[in-house]
Write a structure and sequence with these properties.
Elements: H1 2-17, E1 21-24, H2 38-41, E2 43-50, E3 59-67, E4 73-80, E5 86-95, E6 103-107, E7 115-122, E8 127-136, E9 140-149, H3 156-168, E10 177-178
Antiparallel strand pairs: 1-9, 2-3, 2-9, 2-10, 3-4, 4-5, 5-6, 6-7, 7-8, 8-9
The structure holds 2-acetamido-2-deoxy-beta-D-glucopyranose (NAG).
Organism: Acipenser oxyrinchus oxyrinchus
Binding site for substrate: 112
GO molecular function: lipid binding
């Protein structure tokens, strides 16, 4: 029991250090995009806002999705680091639940388990709301959220509307921050 408590405390400390957001209880279960069509979702999405994630400190963050030959999805994340260098990382996304195709999983390493990548709402042509939540020991959860767009910026009123969607699903986005998408290079 004491080991359990120690483990829990260190996990909380770790997530706090990483700037992640954790909450007691279990993950909210928001609805996802109806009739999600992966083929229309492929292509490049720009990060407008995110719920803090320490592994993405850069600006000009973008993600490009394309199909691999084995029908998994190739994920190419690109950004400009604070030192001005461009950085990219490749991963794989899979859709494992045919009944809920909007619930994808993404992994950036062979050794890393797939993290949830749920498309809560998208019109495929302008915006996408993505949510990722993991329960830890049935005691607390750590979550991430992204507002993505097909353009590097969105009108402020659209961002407000999109934020309201998360909130209406009981997702706490008070720690959401805007991603700097100015003076961005054309990534290859
Ligand atoms: C902004 O919101 C309006 C109203 O919902 C919509 O018609 C328009 O397409 C949106 N613009 C973008 C770039 O998403």
């Amino acid at each position: 029991m004491q080991e359990m408590l120690m483990l829990l405390l260190s996990l909380i400390a770790l997530s706090a250090v990483n700037g992640q957001t954790f909450h007691f209880g279990s993950c909210p279960k928001p609805p996802v995009q109806n009739n999600f069509e992966l083929s229309k979702y492929l292509g490049t999405w720009y990060e407008i806002e995110k719920l803090p994630a320490c592994f993405e400190k850069g600006n000009c963050v973008q993600a490009t999705y394309s199909l691999n030959e084995d029908a998994t999805i190739k994920v190419l994340n690109q950004e400009v680091l604070p030192n001005g260098k461009t950085h990219s990382i490749e991963g794989t996304a899979v859709s494992r639940n045919l009944e809920e195709p909007a619930k994808l999983g993404v992994s950036f390493s062979f050794f890393q388990p797939y993290s949830p990548y749920w498309v809560l709402s998208t019109d495929y042509e302008s915006h996408s709301l993505v949510y990722s939540c993991s329960n830890v020991l049935g005691i607390f959860y750590v979550d991430f959220a992204w507002i993505l767009a097909r353009t590097r910026t969105l009108p402020a009123e659209n961002v407000t509307q999109l934020r309201d969607v998360f909130t209406s699903f009981n997702i706490d986005i008070t720690k959401m921050t805007q991603t700097d998408q100015t003076n961005c290079p054309n990534f290859m």
